[in-house]
Amino acid sequence: MARTQPIRMGMIGGGEGAFIGAVHRHAAGLDGDYKLVCGAFSRDAKNNSNTADALNIDSQRTYSDWQLMLDAEAKLPPTERMEVVVIVTPNHLHVPISLAAIKAGFHVFCEKPAGVDLGEVLDLQDALLSSDRLYGLAHTYLGYPMVWQARHMIEQGMLGSIRKVFVEYPQGWLSANEESHNKQAEWRTDPALAGGSGCMGDIGTHAFGLVEFVLNDNVSALCGELHTHVEGRRLDDDGAALIKMESGATGVLIASQVCAGEENALKIRVYGDKGGLEWQQMEPNSVVYRPLGAPYQVFRAGLGQPGLCNEAIDRCRTPGGHPEGYLEAMANLYKNFAVAIRNGDSGKAKGVPGIHSGVRGLAFISAMLASSDSDMKWETISNVGLQN
Amino acid sequence: MARTQPIRMGMIGGGEGAFIGAVHRHAAGLDGDYKLVCGAFSRDAKNNSNTADALNIDSQRTYSDWQLMLDAEAKLPPTERMEVVVIVTPNHLHVPISLAAIKAGFHVFCEKPAGVDLGEVLDLQDALLSSDRLYGLAHTYLGYPMVWQARHMIEQGMLGSIRKVFVEYPQGWLSANEESHNKQAEWRTDPALAGGSGCMGDIGTHAFGLVEFVLNDNVSALCGELHTHVEGRRLDDDGAALIKMESGATGVLIASQVCAGEENALKIRVYGDKGGLEWQQMEPNSVVYRPLGAPYQVFRAGLGQPGLCNEAIDRCRTPGGHPEGYLEAMANLYKNFAVAIRNGDSGKAKGVPGIHSGVRGLAFISAMLASSDSDMKWETISNVGLQN
Amino acid sequence: MARTQPIRMGMIGGGEGAFIGAVHRHAAGLDGDYKLVCGAFSRDAKNNSNTADALNIDSQRTYSDWQLMLDAEAKLPPTERMEVVVIVTPNHLHVPISLAAIKAGFHVFCEKPAGVDLGEVLDLQDALLSSDRLYGLAHTYLGYPMVWQARHMIEQGMLGSIRKVFVEYPQGWLSANEESHNKQAEWRTDPALAGGSGCMGDIGTHAFGLVEFVLNDNVSALCGELHTHVEGRRLDDDGAALIKMESGATGVLIASQVCAGEENALKIRVYGDKGGLEWQQMEPNSVVYRPLGAPYQVFRAGLGQPGLCNEAIDRCRTPGGHPEGYLEAMANLYKNFAVAIRNGDSGKAKGVPGIHSGVRGLAFISAMLASSDSDMKWETISNVGLQN
Amino acid sequence: MARTQPIRMGMIGGGEGAFIGAVHRHAAGLDGDYKLVCGAFSRDAKNNSNTADALNIDSQRTYSDWQLMLDAEAKLPPTERMEVVVIVTPNHLHVPISLAAIKAGFHVFCEKPAGVDLGEVLDLQDALLSSDRLYGLAHTYLGYPMVWQARHMIEQGMLGSIRKVFVEYPQGWLSANEESHNKQAEWRTDPALAGGSGCMGDIGTHAFGLVEFVLNDNVSALCGELHTHVEGRRLDDDGAALIKMESGATGVLIASQVCAGEENALKIRVYGDKGGLEWQQMEPNSVVYRPLGAPYQVFRAGLGQPGLCNEAIDRCRTPGGHPEGYLEAMANLYKNFAVAIRNGDSGKAKGVPGIHSGVRGLAFISAMLASSDSDMKWETISNVGLQN
């Protein structure tokens, strides 16, 4: 058996004061598959070098600029240079960096949304179709074992024919004017950095992606509205939509960042003619299954737990009752991305959301903006994106 | 102190095999304020007399027909004849009986919805305005102490200015073709008996009424859709709407009877700029309060429990931790209706939903039907009904 | 079919300011089986007459004294006099009144504990054995449908051979010196009125009775200790014991009234070699069932709910999701007591705890006092009481 | 700012098929503070080399034996050799390896319990007192932020004077004869490898340690019993005890591995004269706080969450609502251990359980064995171990 070398990883963004960069580093570190070798963490030189020092990055591989990093790393010997670049910048840079990185020969693991505009994301999709590089999108919630279990139970017909889906994602952290003093809030409410939607780009895409993944079905159309509640805020912070699935099921999608007191309460419920199920992110290790005509059951995550599908088991590290959480969910994406890199796969990494999710997410954002502008016209999105 | 005589009550509907009639009798019996003295329980003579016998009703005051009952009772001496009539028939008889009963001098306590058609309910409203008789509508959920507590906390400004309201009422009992063998399901899905809407008439009105009560605000407009999922079913069994409140808040209303495995999961969440709250019918003795910037709190029903408003305390019979439920909620309506009768109040009984709730409920049903027919046009309903 | 006449009921105790008397009246009223016809509600004349007036009791049948009441009622014609007497006085009067009532020919429904002393309760048991009168004991929690469901599931072998039982009953209402100002607390902490134990007599007996009922097995021995936490308090307010069952299972019993912030959190968990189950009074409509090697299941109370035994169904009035609670649990005792009265049963009323529960409860209290005094000696109680 | 080098870590035990070794590696990897450089993972040569390869360990630093490893590593240059050794073998080797490692100059991070016998653990304590090496003990649950929050709230007097503590640790995984086919179960039920107690050594020590930590108080005496339920099992699999704290509080400790269907349900409840609190491991991000006379509150883990103490905040990596779990709890021990190593601290690592916890754990096990053998004699343990 040959020694398993860690994959060399670089990071763009994620300097001191950022949130999601550290999350990616924790997640990549959890299973020991990656080694951070270089970074362009911040355009602020002091922040950049402090971050690099804290992360034990050689100053020669600490870059002031992402273009410099891609260029310099590409010139290093193949056994030294980074293999995958993690993009944790504000949204507007996601596509430009992704395109350049792929062109320079690197795999890309990118925070969501894939970009700020459907057009640019479709361009990225084109570029990926003609490349052998892997592209992963951090739809973190799709790394949870019990999200896979929910999808599996629906695929197995345990709910029968699907009729209804309700997804909701209430947060409360933007209830007040956070953008005046909180860096995270600042860029997420700035159209130049975040894109055309605030709440839908930031969390609506998670809710949308969860629906399409769990049902293994596309949203065909939606009719919704967006709201902005805090004075001076430049993007929506709240919205809801009625949705239709290609299979004929219908439902409701809610995403809001002004639900005062809510933390991060993403939840999905699905109902078919034979039963229903429910999963919620804040108690992620359970799927409640409600078969018609029998007591309801709770399937639980964990090694050795009864009734789990292989995809769920593969995403657990501990026996039942030892809760795993958000970092483990993202680590599952990294773990599967590492498998694909080591396998030499091209295109999509199995078990990791890819550009298709990115395209669908932007189609969702566009449709929400259009429907809200038109006072509740149904917007069709079934035709956007390749088949998954 | 004079002896408190029980109020003489008659019942129309509620024979063997019916559900809600027994609920009313339990609720009316709980506090000892009423004595059932007469009834027209069923058009089936055998059922009618069996029901009467089981309830210890004199055969002379067991009537084969509701008109006969109103006529005969009106002719009895004032100290003997029934004082209030409880209407627990299918919906299409609610208004005709109510009108006749009021005319004959009886107070009316009626199951919801108030009728099958907005027009007839407005007529009933007119009749009540020129009568001194009391009219109560069994919006049972408005009898729960913690629903009053939620309303109180909003009135006190504990949530600040209201931005969002989400109400949902998923049930699963009509997931299959129940109407083929279940009497309850049969009439509730028959347009001639239930009215123009199935799910919205049966449970959507509860969700709608809960929103207007808890927020002490009217829904100004809604945009929604209705669905029918079971083959051969003649009325909607599911629907959802985006809603706007007169105050400017917005939200979502969901009501469905095909959420397989769900029991009776009515739930409301409200968010303002200072906090949020949540109440759910299946754990009715708690209000979760989420103040912005402090740990969330749980207010609990019960005599001696901290933080409760008077309206909540008045609706509790036991100390905290001795759960009260659905029958006690309806008993609270009966208790308050008894107070009003004994006080000689006219028009509205304090603490009991009245004709205004009935009118609003029908306006809601009409708007849901119209919006769904028009493919998501906003329907305005702020102008329907007198002010509460 | 003959008309079902309500059973004529009298009450001793339960005047204004008492708690449990009103609970009994609500419970007896819920199903319409009883009519309160007489009472000796309080030794305070004003309280007595006010209570009687509020309850519409004829002043001629409002008695200043319980002996007077028993004598006077016994002299009334059989179709007029009370049939059953409800005893809701402090504990020290339970046995004297019960004995006198039985002797005078009345059925007895008594608050628990059955008495203050094992000896007097054994005397009462003897008296009942030679009488045809019915005796019911208000172990209210044994009226809950899901307590019967739990017992049924164990009887059916769904847990296999029972190994462990944990029962706990934490309350917090005596955390401070309540007896200085709260009537309820006053007599419950007075040895002359409450008996030799405070907490064990008041709530420990409930926990103990629940174990014996759900397991359908006797506690054979216990080893425990009692504590008193509030200065000046004259009886224990807290205690715990290790217990052994006759079947060989072992467990823990906790009862405390100084668990600050707890309401009335009675809970039982049972484990066998094939599975476990859990029921808690504050969410009384669920039994959690944990079969070994399968996802856990939740059985839910309600008409039409899957998997329920007949004894559970018979104790439900509403469909699933319409919560029933504490008053309904006690009403179930009253309903079954009414059935037994109407059937002319003698001795034990089916489905209602009787003198056997009373004897066992006092044996438990005695053993707790003895074990605590002896610094943790095992006290055997398997030999106390007739077989159930 | 100087670059932060990872700490060089070696591991003894943790080969393929073991559970806890991987947990330690995940935890050590999460924050990037450690680099695994050597190991003696298994006495099975194939397992050892496979594990090493999978972990990218140089074959020259993959040792067939722990003594060899300590010797060889000690001879490497200071900048190369391992700095800390992680011990994840069966219990009987914990002390021998710890003693040798300290003597050889390595810091030790050891799975719990510290050893199999109080005597050997006291010897280890002596050795540590005369060494400058750090010793950490993996009482993982003491790494949870909300366990620190609970301790803090008690220290701040938010509960007043403590009266009661209930701790319980039900598991179900040893309900059947697991040791016949499950390696984990095999050694944990073998007295030669696990020590004199099965359940108390494995999980009772966690429950005990949690009580002493959260209350910041010692158990002074206990009176308990042990049971073995599965035929042929050689050690206890279940037990319970009444406990007394030095402060005067009393309580109950339950630990069992035959609670069929339970996962890993460690839970603690504490009550004082001003309030109570509750924490449970399976929902580790909440502390329920029940102040006397006010609605109960829920304190929630997460960056930016209200009301948290510094010790809790320091143990969070994500904002509220992004659940962290068991691996993060252990990672918090590793993170604090890294801080102490880098600081050059000697003796105890701040925020990490040390030899004192080890000594107390063994004193607990000894007392449980002695009390159970003596049929419920109180065993005093307040005098065992140095002050924390």
UniProtKB/TrEMBL annotation, chains A, B, C, D:
Domain GFO/IDH/MocA-like oxidoreductase residues, every copy: 149-278
UniProtKB keywords: Signal
Residue stretches making up the Gfo/Idh/MocA-like oxidoreductase N-terminal domain: 7-135
Coiled coil (UniProt feature): none
Pfam family, one: GFO_IDH_MocA
Annotated GO MF terms: nucleotide binding
Keyword Signal listed: yes
PANTHER family: CONSERVED EXPRESSED OXIDOREDUCTASE (EUROFUNG), OXIDOREDUCTASE
Protein name as it appears in the record: Gfo/Idh/MocA family oxidoreductase
